[in-house]
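COMPLEX REQUEST
Ligand: zinc ion
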Amino acid sequence: MKQKRPYRILCLGAHPDDIEIGCGGTLLALLANGHAVSCHWVVFSGGGTAREREARAGAARFLARAKRRTLDVHSFRDGFFPYVGGEIKDTFEALAKVISPDAIFTHARHDRHQDHRLISDLTWNTFRRHLILEYEVPKYDGDLGSPNLFVPLVPAVAKAKVRSLLAVFRSQRSKHWFTADTFHGLLRLRGIESGAPKGLAEAFYGRKLLVNL
Ligand SMILES: [Zn+2]
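STATUS: Structure written out below.
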């Protein structure tokens, strides 16, 4: 995938930590492999709160090797996205005017968290000629499914992902699910399902894939 201009990636997450949980390993792997990447990273909540610092630290850590990074942290209210959908849609429309990415990472369509789902729907509404990969976030609601696209990870990248999640998102560590074994367990499970060489992978839903032959 070496090319003259950097590969443009758009990462979308409802809350600080979603992007890192969903596709942090893939981003680290892509950057570790030496690809020139320009990343626009958008978090839709947490702006103006203590969580904004975590959002910024997360992006800085996971994109340390990116050629260019742009970070937007919005302050839509956690848990209430569907009730201010119009304003969030305006944010998407504005985003589409400034970026036409090669790949977009966003929430999964069937995610049971209302904020996640809205971000996924608006991604598909807004970006209609783009590669969209939907990532997964483990949660109480039990909405994990059977992804169809896997990115194998080497153990060092998997470890770096998990270590960074715990180091950056200290405000989340009181949540019973926010533990190293949750994150590593999911990587291991997806590694088994994909036959990844090192038994570790991140998984996505690629609902619509255009292939140029
Ligand atoms: Zn979230």
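REMARKS: The chain has a mean pLDDT of 96. The pocket of zinc ion is lined by residues 14-15, 18, 113, 116, 137 (CB under 6 Å).
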